[in-house]
Amino acid sequence: MSKWLPFVSSVREADGKQMSVGKEYRATCELPILGELGMSYRVVEYAPQRRVAVESESWLRPRLELRFEPGDSQCRMHVLVSFRRRSYLFQYTLSPVLHFVSNQQLQRSLFLLRMVFPQ
């Protein structure tokens, strides 16, 4: 995860469960202005080789969804980062900045990944 989202400095299992809905992870994130922040994530959706969604109940309430579309010789990955806060103050102030930063970091990481593994 830290290779795709550089502001995520580490991710580790919080329990010994197999990958399934309810599995927990602990992530350390480096956020602009806020500094280092530890968050617990829980798998809320899981379909093997198709979809994984994790959510956190930290004050930002982030959700990361990864969808995979396997093909003949490649696999397409869709990434959605969202924040589940509903306040207008958050939606019109901090949310656009966080979306912009997370999308830029993800684009940069995927571009570098594509450079390492050209088609």
UniProtKB/TrEMBL annotation:
Give the protein's recorded name: Uncharacterized protein
